Amino acid sequence: MPSFPLLEAIFIFLLSGVRPSHPLQEVHVSRETIGKISAASKMIWCSAAVDVLFLIDGSYSVGKGSFERSKHFAVTVCDALDIGPERVRVGALQFGSVPRLEFPLDSFSSPREVKANMKSMVFKGGRTETGLALKYLLRKGFPGGRNASVPQILIVVTDGRSQGHVAPPAKQLKERGVTVFAVGVRFPRWEELHALASEPREQHVLMAEQVEDATNGLLSTLSKSDICTAASPDCQVQPHPCERKTLETVRELVGSALCWRGSRGTDAVLVALCPFSSWKRVVLTHPATCYRTTCPGACDSQPCQNGGTCVPEGLDRYHCLCPPAFGGEANCAPKLSPECRIDVLFLLASSAGTTLEGFLRAKAFVKRFVQASLGEDSRARVGVARYSGELMVAVPVGEYQDMPDLLRSLDGIPFGGGATLTGGALRQVAERGFGSAARTGQDRPRRVVVLLTESPSQDDVAGPARHARARELLLLGVGTEAVRAELEEITGSPERVLVYTGPHDLFRQTRELQGKLCSRPPPGCQARSLDLVFALDASASVGPENFARMQSFVRSCALRFDVNPDVTQVGLVVYGGRVRVAFGLDTHATRASVLRAVSQAPYLGGVGSAGTALLHIHDRVMTVQRGARPGVPKAVVVLTGGLGAEDAAVPVRKLRNNGVSVLVVGVGPVLREALRRLAGPRDSLLHVATYADLRHHQDALIQWICGEAKRPVNLCKPSPCMHEGTCILQNGSYRCECQDGWQGPHCGKRSLRGDAPKARGSRRDPSQQLPRSEHPGR
Questions:
Q1: What CATH superfamily classification does 297-334 receive?
Q2: 371-396 confidence digits (pLDDT tens)
Q3: Which of 188, 382, 480, 624 is the most exposed place for a label (fewest CB within 10 A)?
Q4: What pLDDT, in 10s, does the model give residues 732-761?
Q5: Is 213:38 a contact under the CB 8 Å cutoff?
Q6: How many CA atoms lie within 13 A of 450 on its CB side?
């Protein structure tokens, strides 16, 4: 009969031949993300002075099959290391009953030699004496290493079933500055792996059975210490929920059976009920968090349009399965119409503020646009320029008719660095950006400048932008939220600005840019005099994100008017827990200053009352004292989600009776009854489904405002007479009868003692504007 140790060895060999039939570590992400994790493991490169030592378990409990998989993991990691005497040094040590040095860190200076010797390692067998191997390193250090002059990384590949204590020597190694990764094989005991690993443990415990996942996890952790870097700046390390499993043999009570026991000191045999147990193998799960690097996939930007399906082909290639109507088009997107005759110059910021990554994204966007938009029959011609301190026209407009040549030229445009002088670049583009492509007369196509930037300009942009637009250049802007206001000022309209939140979102702007290149927005009622006040619901029911959408909508509307004291005046009121005048009618005399002030309007929160806000407008905004002009049409546009509008019916009626037109823009899937009651006799109500849809209703709003601006005006509504003076219409004009103690055309001056009795019938020509000195608060 074999002894117990022999039976144990036989049992271990039987188990060692069992390969796990299910993942022992499972990251709970989509199949697409698993593919990205696998691909990203091949896109990370480690090139730093560092010593990496593999400590590989070669004991019987691991078995020869798992030992081979451990070697495969080590070789895969080496593919990402810049192995050389001055950079990454790699060594290997195998342990079973005793540790055995396979090759020291200074043995080989090339990846080929290291991987060849890693593959030639022979399975040793023996007990699992992980603690002895760690003590060996405590005594002798990293064999062939550079001591503590460079970072030291120990990668322990084991099943975690040591026959000795591992925590004390592992702790001593970590206290000496060694970074320890614990990588499980077969059915690992995770508690021991956690005792071996450095902090944070979830980032230093891996599973070698899933080689690419484990390699990604190890390199992701090293990238946080700048030892490794991803090939693409858009690759990111992100946490994912995962589950770790281990196989354990547990004892289970089955029942009881009769058993016979002898009694000491007697010859009697006792019969008793004895518990009967069985042994079974169970899989135990341990929830965890796994940190992995993922890189943008070719299909992340959803390049296939019109219902097309994107099929990735490797890391950066894809093809589209298109619906029948778009089967012959790249990206399932129609090309620019042959009727659209344009010369397009892409102007790319290449400054330090934009960064190299931002510049490369802009170039990639231009390439994607050219491929998706220009067909054989297209009459659009493309050029590319970059700028920082100076403008450089890298690809003159119309120089390349062949698509591959154009794309190669794009790839060769270098990054510049330096200051961000957007204004200077715009002025130079207006003068020489289109070069010989600039024709004259009827033969000249529309000229468009598409500015791509992520960095605010360090010089003035308003003047150069006006100069460029005066030369009949259409300016379009593409950038991040940080430069939205500047791009709106440059282009002259929010409708000519595309804002993106990240790299993927940038590439989704291709189709929208196509639409803007040949579109011509309808003009507003530019020459009409108008006093216009916007009232924005800034209550908690709207929220800051939707409030920002309303601000953008108001800016877009304001750009359709000629803002100056003689034509259109614009004011803004916001209301939430309180009412606040962001700026009055006579505060800003230019369109640019109105745009800036709208962007700076505060979000208030709290419970809003539209009625209180409208009364505030009636009493303190639409008055002569606050800049309202006699004889000029007046309109108020209220933007609200509907909550807090229950008390607005009377104030709306009061404004309308006083000659002020009121339009209510109600936002929400269902139009609230409280808003319906505010429509008035001319149905002055606009329903918008969501705040994001406001921009689609701009033309309807402008049409309503311009219609109200053409209506006849009652010169005494609202009354131009201050201090309770009475307005009297007379012969196409009006006069103010002032109360005692007041005098002047609008009763704006106090009477002095001894003055002759004032004429109670001071007449005022409505064509004359109220003197600025009579505006209180000026």
A1: Laminin (2.10.25.10)
A2: 777 766 677 889 999 999 899 999 89
A3: 480
A4: 888 999 999 999 888 888 887 545 444 444
A5: yes
A6: 28
